[in-house]
Amino acid sequence: MQTVIETNALCKAYGKHLAVDHIQLHVPEGCVYGFIGPNGAGKSTTMKMLLGLIHPSAGQVFLLGQELTAKNRLPLLRQTGSLIESPSGYLHLSAQENLQIVADLKGIPHKDIARVLEIVHLTGDRNRKVGQYSLGMKQRLGIAMALMGDPKLLILDEPTNGLDPAGIQEMRSLLADMPETTGATVLVSSHLLGEMEQLVTQVGIINQGKMLFEGSLRELQRHSRGSLTLRVLHPQKALPVLRNNGISAQLKEDLLTLPPLRDELVAGLVQTLADSGAGIVELTRHTKSLEEIFLSLTDAKGVS
Fold first, then answer.
1. Where are the domains of the chain?
2. Residue 37, burial from CB neighbour count under 10 angstroms (0-12, 13-18, 19+)
3. Which of 48, 102, 211, 219 is most buried as measured by Cβ atoms within 10 A of its Cβ?
4. Cα distance between residue 48 and residue 210, in whole Å
5. Would you say 144 and 117 are in contact if contact means Cβ atoms under 8 Å apart?
6. For 222-301, CATH number?
């Protein structure tokens, strides 16, 4: 599979502190890639190096199959849209006027404005002053600016930061469809795993400047499986079934807490419990928090 972003031992040092420590990043074409880590993990620093906004201390960046250099930075960035930190825009101007300025700066025909406004669902508000926009609308305008010129790659730094639940849902829906609606590959950062799980297909987890995990969402979900809570009408009928299947369970009132189990095992267990007359009322799978996944990955890889 072709990669649109690749880094080779990418580092950024500030004095003796390595903010980004030999990062190996691989973003396949046509995906939404979630770059996940706590605040201060090195996400924004990495993204700025991908865009040539800060210089690496060591290592290489490859965008769209080419190494990013001082000579080809501008041609490569013309094929890349980005939203780093807060969205920019003149508050006293309308979205239409802001996008006209972006078009002129990029040398893009004004007819592209209608296309990007449609994608981010701002067509009906194109003539409103941006100062009257909600934060979610400003974020969507920032993405519209990034989409000007039909880029092959979008790099978005925490685009859901500060949004209310409705704004997060709208942004999630917008970004999940982006490869299909625009043909662009999307790299999006966040410190919220739950938010990313509903959006991305590929994941990279960074902590203290080091990559702890990179792979498909499916692979990550194996790490994020937590315990199961089973509520039954007749716990005393359920306990022998669990014991016979080699599953330890803790009983508190009518709730049984089970260890993490594979989906196939859960499906068979539910059927067996139903046949036993245990009376299943509810089954809840608990997803590990991002912090818990960090800890499990750190322990597994010996990263301190």
1. 3-215, 222-301
2. buried
3. 211
4. 16
5. yes
6. 3.30.70.1150
pTM: 0.80
pLDDT (tens digit per residue) in 11-35: 999 999 999 999 999 999 999 999 9
Q: How far is CA 173 from CA 33, 62, 292, in A?
A: 15, 28, 27
Contact 182, 32 (CB under 8 A): no
User: What tokens appear for 101 in the block?
Assistant: 């300025």
Q: What fold does the segment set 3-215 form as a domain?
A: Rossmann fold (3.40.50)
Provide the greatest CA pair distance for the chain: 73
Query: Rounded to whole angstroms, how far apart are CA atoms 157 and 167?
Result: 16
Please state whether 302 falls in left (phi above 0), alpha (psi between -120 and 50) or beta.
Answer: left
Residue 298 tokens read as: 């750190």
Helices (H), ranges, the chain = 43-50, 73-77, 95-106, 112-119, 135-147, 165-176, 178-182, 193-197, 217-224, 235-244, 263-276, 290-301
pLDDT top residue among 286 and 241: 241
E strand or H helix at 2: none
- CA separation for the pair 239, 177 (Å, rounded): 45
